[in-house]
Specification:
Shape: elongated
Structural class: alpha/beta
Strand order of the largest sheet: 5-4-6-7-8
Radius of gyration: 28 Å
Distance between the termini: 54 Å
Helix content: 25-40%
Amino acid sequence: GLPEERAAFKADLVTYLAKFTSELDEDSLRRIETNPLRILDSKNSKTQEILVGAPKLSDYYGEESLSDFKGLLNLLDSAGITYTINSGLVRGLDYYSKTVFEWVTTALGAQGTVCAGGRYDGLVAQLGGKPTPGVGFAMGIERLVLLLEELSLIPDDTKNLIDIFVIASGEGCVEQAFQISEALRTQTSLRVLQNAGGGSFKSQMKKADKSGAPLAIIIGEQELNSRQVILKALRDNDLLKSYGLSGGEQKLLAIDEINSNLKTIFLE
């Protein structure tokens, strides 16, 4: 709802909860003074029983909020997106307005919220800017990865996810590898993964092979001094064969020629 609608609801909610102060848990008693709306998502079962008879925020919506919410539900319905209207869903920050939402899953046990956010149409104005409608969300990357794993949505075969793995070993080589990787990402559509965290040449080669990339770019001190890199085929690949590289074979290439040569191999 709108701020004025929440303010009216909050006042009536506090009046209602004041009749149950002897039964509310410690957190809820504290929140009556600080942020009463947060009591709505209390995990205390007794508090939730008390809230059954409490005022509902939806009863305080004006015409604008009702129209806006109905429009949102129509969009979800037309897209075939299922949803549950949760009158106890709240946000701890006052700048949220109208709609707040969560994406939840039953596949991760108690850690079921994958994404959460809402609209904050008044935030920019509060910060001194022009009134600007806005919406935002937060999503836990680790939780999202856990969900993908739980639902078996991460492909076993990753050979098509990375084109080139960049390896660097020796003084000044990491900096050169970084420059090469950035140039490839900027000037081509190739997918480049650069080794991070150091490690021996052998350990980096293991990472390169595990990455599924067909090609490795290797930079050691000798190559750096001669302004060259090693192109090493990590596995048989038709594109690399056309360039004269079969699995395990390698060639020297001038650093200045990397982009043009790899465009030829992968993109033309």
